[in-house]
Amino acid sequence: xxxxxxxxxxxxxxxxxxxxxxxxxxxxxxxxxxxxxxxxxxxxxxxxxxxxxxxxxxxxxxxxxxxxxxxxxxxxxxxxxxxxxxxxxxxxxxxxxxxxxxxxxxxxxxxxxxxxxxxxxxxxxxxxxxxxxxxxxxxxxxxxxxxxxxxxxxxxxxxxxxxxxxxxxxxxxxxxxxxxxxxxxxxxxxxxxxxxxxxxxxxxxxxxxxxxxxxxxxxxxxxxxxxxxxxxxxxxxxxxxxxxxxxxxxxxxxxxxxxxxxxxxxxxxxxxxxxxxxxxxxxxxxxxxxxxxxxxxxxxxxxxxxxxxxxxxxxxxxxxxxxxxxxxxxxxxxxxxxxxxxxxxxxxxxxxxxxxxxxxxxxxxxxxxxxxxxxxxxxxxxxxxxxxxxxxxxxxxxxxxxxxxxxxx
Length: 409
Hints:
This protein is an alpha+beta fold. The protein has two domains: about 10-290, outer membrane lipoprotein receptor (LolB), chain A, CATH 2.50.20; about 320-405, no CATH class. It contains seven helices and 18 strands. The strands form two sheets. A twelve-stranded mixed beta sheet has the order 7-8-9-10-11-1-2-3-4-5-6-12. Strands 13-14-18-17-16-15 form a six-stranded antiparallel beta sheet. Strand 5 (about 160-165) and strand 6 (about 170-175) form a beta hairpin.
């Protein structure tokens, strides 16, 4: 189907931007337990042979429909596929290098290595491969997301003041209080969303990035999870970004995002494809959000494990400051690594052999006014780590990273 309209006039930019900001605030609140993580992304195209015949909408009208959506209750199944082009680690995934991951998880003999149920490690597994999730939401105080495996299940449950994470494979649980998150800058009743896990999460990030650097169109319709949907397409105008285009399937009745597909500028399969395969907008059963640790479960309270980094005065040590260079799709995040030095030299005992092989397989050596460094590449997010301990990262090309580092010196 041909697009309903071409790119909108620049005179509408301010109104369009305000609508997107509103949309980002009001999308259905299906949240996940938060961890500090990079942008990740997801399979099949939205189009099918049975695309519904829907009334025509402009891009602005569709964005306003998303913004007006009052969906706060739903349940369903989400399929996520991520293909960042990362090399195989022979059984060691990205979580192998994170506390609580496969290379540092807790267990009966691993009390000093954190909890295997800590969301900081478990949800990073969504950054690669195919995953099936069950999600449920009943307003801002109750959400649940479960990652289903062949023989196990990992769930994060938010119910009022409590957040529980439970890993059935290890029979470990992780417990946090909303009040603790609020003290660190989060709002009560909301879980941090650095790791997107539903079409809403991905759409929210994309809409926040959509401004005058983006062409926004309505490109036909689709059937998603048996429901009629419009296809909203965001295409970056900037060169230098690794993002080709983003397609969001928006439920024609409720305005809820049902599917998100990100295609890289380099072509090939989607980097990210997240979509409902089944969805119900009725209120989930109340006991969906109940959780009591099974007998014998090892429970870790937030702030009690070695994963909580504290300074000599007992206070939490904050995350490194992030500075943004540039604007739009070619913006680059600058982070100064602690200690003022870059990656360990090849053969260093400071890094596990698997991690060193992983980094070597991704990196390209570069030089410039910033000195020297290594660019690590995926199909979407690239990062330049300089030898003096500065990281420049974004959904941008290698040349854009180097230029950002050059302009910063």
